[in-house]
């Protein structure tokens, strides 16, 4: 046997040892009945793919804030269970019928690669890690892993399908029944030594049961360096301009897609604006970044040390005296000529986009700075060393419907103290200010022996209790709160947000891979229905049954 075959067999042998746990043989729902509890909310339906948690990974829902006339919704796929039996379980998007609004039905699942013509190599195969197998010739579809000798590691693979190494979990519906789907490097086994898609693909969903591929835009990336693709991380979140906002109906305006993506020549993700008026030929209209992100041209003016982990605290780097930060464009919400950008550990950025090809900076609310003066900071947060450390990561911000001067802003932060909700006054877009916070005791209950972790980690088998996505209407904010399921917050008095309802659920708490409460997003359906997506445990239909805003109180 040649050296190549020996190396591959050794990698396969070690991987087999690591994966030698009992196989998942049946639906989780059949093994452990779901448990749930609620206050001011009730469950009215579910779509869990017959209990199969390995294909039950829903993520960002669209259109927001409302489902498509109560008829359809679209969801990205999310991280599959390690026990998943379905190839490509995190590499797809799905279309869902709401014609029976209490019982969503999946109409179509569209994968990023052809599961039959281009079967992916097992994640245990050396092709994912071996330097000898880096940078295979790109071909799609690629049938090299239909060869048993290639699977066994005795024959070198001939090609590589970028879809194998691509994760698709975020979708957004634009005007004209166009669906945008993100493409970024695969999570949970992905590699920097092989190609992946790194941009956005576009589909025609005029017939939701039969989406039609239209085009693919990919961000420019550098040539591989030492066998590594260094900046092909791809595109994460995005939204169309004026998405879901009544009063903004110009097709030309709404055809602009604002996204956060890795891009050649920059450190961290930046803002790119795509013109999608012809969805078969999307073109870049503009881009924008925080000064210091461009490299090497702006290296000297970068006043932070870039850190890869957005859940690490912001501190002063002793070697440089600069702050350690994860500065990266994450989530855009664009209303008329104003864009609100959640820019991770650079905080909230507000741009004037009246001239779409020349975005103008208005302000930056950088609350992730040690010693940041915030008179509204809750007492429970003051136990932490805020004068030397900042905790958080700006995830998403949206205007409150009917209140154009009020923004809700979530942090996605998986270290204790975990990410929570802020209410922000944006009456003067050049001077945004925090007016209140909302968090739970679990957000600040840290383990004294390990301050970055929860004091009750068993309660949060998948993630810590961090805020994520949601939507507001009629004075209530319906929010996906990782680890704590779906929460309703009364924001009628934005200076004093209070909990108004909750819905919690579990599938099998003994198996963190699909324990539930990996809650991702909430959008609205007809007749007061709420659609709640979960990253491991399906899609739920619930309803708020509480009192009108201002009257509800936590029991």
Spatial gap, N to C terminus: 70 Å
Give the mean pLDDT.
87
Query: According to CATH, what is the class?
Result: Mainly Beta
Number of domains: 1
Strand order of the largest sheet: 1-31-30-29-28
Low-confidence region ranges: 6-33, 550-555
CATH A-level architecture: 7 Propeller
Shape: globular
Mind summarizing the main beta sheet? Answer: 5 strands, antiparallel
* Overall helicity: under 10%
Number of strands: 34
- The CATH superfamily is YVTN repeat-like/Quinoprotein amine dehydrogenase
List keywords for this structure.
single chain; globular; five-stranded antiparallel β-sheet; disordered C terminus; Methylamine Dehydrogenase, Chain H; 36% strand; 555 residues; mainly beta; 5 helices
Your description of this structure?
- This protein has 555 residues and is mainly β.
- It has one domain: Methylamine Dehydrogenase, Chain H, CATH 2.130.10.
- The protein contains five helices and 34 strands.
- The strands form nine sheets. It has a five-stranded antiparallel sheet with strand order 1-31-30-29-28, with no helix packed on it.
- 50% of the residues are buried.
- The C terminus is likely disordered.
């Amino acid at each position: 046997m040649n050296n190549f075959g020996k190396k591959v067999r050794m990698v396969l042998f070690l991987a087999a040892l690591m994966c030698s746990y009992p196989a998942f043989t049946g639906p989780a729902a059949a093994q452990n009945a779901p448990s749930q509890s609620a206050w001011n909310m009730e469950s009215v339906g579910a779509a869990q793919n017959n209990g199969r948690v390995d294909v039950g990974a829903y993520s960002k829902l669209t259109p927001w804030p409302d489902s498509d006339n109560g008829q359809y919704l679209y969801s990205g796929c999310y991280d599959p269970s390690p026990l998943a039996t379905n190839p490509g379980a995190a590499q797809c998007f799905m279309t869902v019928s709401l014609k029976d609004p209490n019982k969503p039905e999946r109409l179509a699942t569209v994968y990023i690669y052809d599961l039959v013509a281009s079967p992916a190599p097992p994640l245990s195969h050396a092709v994912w890690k071996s330097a000898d197998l880096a940078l295979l010739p790109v071909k799609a579809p690629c049938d090299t892993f239909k060869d048993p000798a290639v699977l066994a590691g005795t024959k070198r693979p001939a090609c590589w399908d970028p879809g194998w190494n691509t994760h698709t979990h975020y979708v957004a519906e634009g005007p004209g029944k166009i669906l945008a789907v993100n493409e970024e490097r695969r999570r949970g086994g992905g590699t920097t030594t092989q190609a992946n898609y790194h941009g956005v693909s576009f589909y025609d969903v005029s017939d939701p049961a039969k989406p039609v591929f239209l085009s693919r835009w990919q961000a420019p990336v550098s040539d591989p360096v030492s066998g590594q693709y260094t900046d092909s991380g791809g595109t994460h979140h995005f939204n169309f301009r004026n998405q879901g906002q009544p009063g903004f109906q110009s097709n030309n305006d709404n055809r602009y897609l604002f996204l956060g993506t890795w891009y050649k020549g920059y450190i961290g993700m930046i803002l790119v604006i795509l013109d999608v008026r012809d969805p078969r030929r999307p073109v870049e209209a503009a881009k924008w970044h925080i000064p210091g992100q461009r490299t090497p041209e702006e290296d000297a003016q970068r006043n932070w040390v870039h850190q890869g982990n957005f859940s690490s605290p912001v501190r002063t780097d002793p070697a440089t005296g600069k702050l350690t930060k994860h500065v990266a464009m994450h989530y855009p919400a664009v209303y008329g000529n104003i864009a609100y950008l959640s820019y991770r550990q650079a905080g909230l950025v507000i741009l004037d986009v009246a001239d779409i090809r020349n975005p103008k900076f208005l302000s930056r609310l950088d609350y992730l700075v040690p010693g940041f003066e915030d008179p509204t900071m809750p007492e429970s947060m003051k136990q932490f060393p805020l004068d030397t450390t900042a905790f958080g990561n700006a995830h998403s911000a949206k205007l409150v419907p009917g209140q154009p001067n009020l923004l809700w802003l979530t942090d996605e932060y998986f270290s204790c103290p975990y990410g929570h909700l802020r209410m922000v006054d944006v009456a003067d877009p050049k001077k945004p200010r925090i007016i209140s916070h909302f968090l739970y005791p679990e957000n600040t209950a840290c383990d004294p022996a390990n301050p970055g972790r929860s004091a009750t980690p068993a309660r949060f088998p998948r993630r810590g209790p961090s805020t994520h996505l949601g939507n507001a209407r009629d004075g209530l904010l319906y929010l996906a709160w990782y680890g704590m399921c779906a929460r309703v917050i009364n924001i009628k008095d934005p200076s004093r947000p209070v909990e108004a309802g909750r819905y919690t659920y579990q599938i099998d708490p003994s198996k963190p891979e699909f324990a539930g409460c990996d809650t991702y997003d909430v959008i609205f359906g007809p007749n007061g229905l709420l659609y709640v997506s979960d990253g491991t445990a399906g899609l739920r239909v619930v309803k708020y049954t509480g009192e009108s805003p201002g009257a509800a109180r936590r029991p």
